[in-house]
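Could you join me in thinking about how sequence relates to backbone shape in a protein? Would you write everything just below, so we can both look at the same thing?
***
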Amino acid sequence: MTPVRRNALLLALGLVFQSGMIQLAVALGTVTIVAVTGVEGILGLGPAVFLLAGAAAVGPAGRISDRVGRMPVIRFGFALGIAGPVVTAAGCAIESGVLVFLGLALCGAGQTIVLLSRAAAAEMFPPERRARGMSIVLFGVVSGAVWGPLVFGPMFAGRSLTPHDLVVPWLAAGAFTLVGLLVSLGVRPDPKQLSQIYAVSTDSQAPAAPLREILRRPGVGTAMVAAVGSFAVMAGVMNLAGYVAVGHHHSHGSIFTIISLHIVGMYGLVLIVGDVIDRIGRRTSMVGGLCVMALSNAGLVWLDSIAGMSLSLFGLGLGWCFAYVAATTELVDLAGASERGRLIGTTDLLSSVGGAFLALAGGVVYSGAGGSVPLALSACGLSVFAAAWVAGNRPNSGVLAASAGS
């Protein structure tokens, strides 16, 4: 087995275990906040803290990875992903809202840093196969659809979800991330080192450009709109879906069914999605994915059963998969080996800030301005806006046009 394929498979396996922590944080973050604090009006604050901490961490992490390599930074992300659930569990045990928020912040920081694995995977492959390379690693996250029903679901069977009932599941989330850290130790040589074989001589010798110069390159802004728009809308809706389901009088255990199918949509077809993106072009994939997200959000206006919400969240995840993988692959192509970390890190920072804002605003809308309908319609409108922006901004260089599928 070649080093590239071995590394890609190990990065994917690391995300298999990381996804257990992610699913629990998404499904129960809002429930944990309300259970510990007793204040429903701040239900959007938990996801916002999770995403804002990720935003604060991923920018510096990306820049550091340009200097020291990808894996030391990714392994540090796993370490944060172990500490976060442990601190959250402690907050539940002593009913401390401060510790719960701190734990969610550590979880969010760890998640965004570990997800830099997708760009690390893409850069190991030749440019024409980078979407495929990224899809191999992201496929690992689909296992989160299995961890929820098989592991976390039974933990909540017949329980009233008091703060003390949440301690063991959060500790289990930390154990999953620990296994991911151990797997990551086998990734070598570093993906950045492997990427050098695809760099032209001028690229490998030239110093990294300042971020403001990278952002002015043709196509970068358009790809960032697709990446930030798709992630922010997806994360904002996903992080509130569990509480919305409870508001529709569904059981807490049913949250995992909805989130599991959402994760299947996000990652279950990613191997196929990567090949499709390489065939139809990245720009077409960005626009199409954002449109699917818009339709799925609109569906939440009428679909409030478990089956209906699961279908809408599946579509939301699938649309995100097309838009985000295409946009991130494009950004990897538009930056040199010593620039990718800062560009992807900046994009992830903006994505997480956008998701945090939408989760916080969505919580306010849901609890004080009419429930799930205005929330769904707002998310639909934002998806349409992002799709229209990408569709209306064609690449203006021949090389970029070829890569974007114009």
